[in-house]
Amino acid sequence: MYTINQLEMFRLVAETGSFNKAAEKAYVTPNAVMKHINNLEEELGITLFNRTFRGQNLTEAGECLYKNAVRILNYAASTIQEVRDVARSEISKVRVGRSIMTPIEPLNPLLNEIRKEYPGIRFEFIPFENVKTESNNLMIPNPGTIMDIVIDAFDEYTLEELNAKGIELTRIAMHAVVSTNHEFAEREEVGIEELAGKTLVYRKGLMRAIDDFIEDLNKKGITFREKLIDAYTMEVYDEVANSDEIMIGIGNFKNTHPFLKRVPLNYEKKSAFGILYPEEPTESVKLFVQIVKDIIEKNPEKTYVTGI
User: Fold this and answer.
1) Rounded distance between C-alpha atoms, residue 160 and residue 108, angstroms
2) 193-213 confidence digits (pLDDT tens)
3) Nearest to 21 by CA among 12, 31, 34
4) What is the pTM of this model?
């Protein structure tokens, strides 16, 4: 019996007239495409294509199958979409974690887009403090415990530590976080060599990007005073706001503190920023993640992250 995959492969060959071009569109090898077509012809007992050195041309029987295959595939796609929509309507609540270090405002465009398309989803924002716990070393609660998702910068280290997966929505740059009275506060950019002799505040082991940045400073022979912290708390923000210290941060998050300014560092490496969710999500979280991916795929040119 033929399968949806066989019909889809048949449609691609019929529309491109080539096994190679169909393979490119399906992200498979030409041999895999030929195998699908050969199996389909064998099961039906019909020759669907005239093979020529110029390409693959449909036979009369192939023309008939193509018209009906398109109808079947469109119906299957609309049915799957209808089933997904029904399932998504059953998502009643998504718990979003937020803290000083992980503000949700940058994702307001995306969250509002989701609310517009799925008004039945209710977002609940769960505040938390960035403190070290027994379950992880990152001062971020594991997604799936008190919350479903967290919005934050991440890398492979973060995901492994939190037993999480991530949807990258954008990439964000390294910043110097300084007092509004600091000499760098009104600058558009700070060169990394200008950090020489300064006191740098950061959390070691939080993000590989920050660790790599510090390592690059050392490799370039840029000496600085080091002030390590256990967590990015309001107390730490207050200390930086009332001193000449420079906190190393990722992203240009707004309104984290009234007396702090984030200034971009002249450093090319960037970090992923997006949504973190459990490695083994609940059915509701799976559906929510699929909603996010579908919205982004539908409008790939649209910006869903702002202010960072």
Assistant:
1) 27
2) 999 999 999 988 878 889 999
3) 12
4) 0.64
